[in-house]
What does this fold into?
Amino acid sequence: MHFCRGRGLALPAGRLLDVTDLLQRLIRLWTEPVGDGAAAGAAFAQVYTDPVVVNGAPITVARLADRARSLQRAFDRLSMQILDQVETSDRLVLAFIMRGRHIGPYPSPLGTIPPTGRQIEVRTIDVLTIQDGLVSAITVVADDFGLLTQLDAIPPADGP
It folds into this structure.
């Protein structure tokens, strides 16, 4: 994984949030096994507000933990390679590639996709809004078409 150390994000009373620490905690939540129940919610509450707004819809940290658990059940050896990051006083923008091997059912917009055993790469951009040291909103732009193509759920687009 690649982390860039930045100047930090502003917190109340002039403190700065260590962006590297926030990124490491966030990435661990999505790539390392998430337990069940209150412990998972508590872990997500250390990084996200409750609720957090994802693409305009409020989602509880418990539901966010469920999403991470579902992703981890579908893909083995998840990793995130940070390609680029941009920081402002209240935003962190990340461009990254998520990689893994498809080992379990994956709930997609087209229905559940059975395991294929394939390695996947998904390019994603997350725009994170940071409030009081926690992620309060996320705008996610992921290459779902590319993922679904890699899993043979849709045929690849024809040439250029």
About this structure: The radius of gyration is 16 Å. Helices lie at 19-31, 38-45, 61-74, 144-150. The CA atoms of residues 1 and 81 lie 5 Å apart. Strands lie at 9-10, 16-17, 48-54, 57-59, 75-87, 91-102, 106-108, 111-113, 119-131, 134-142.
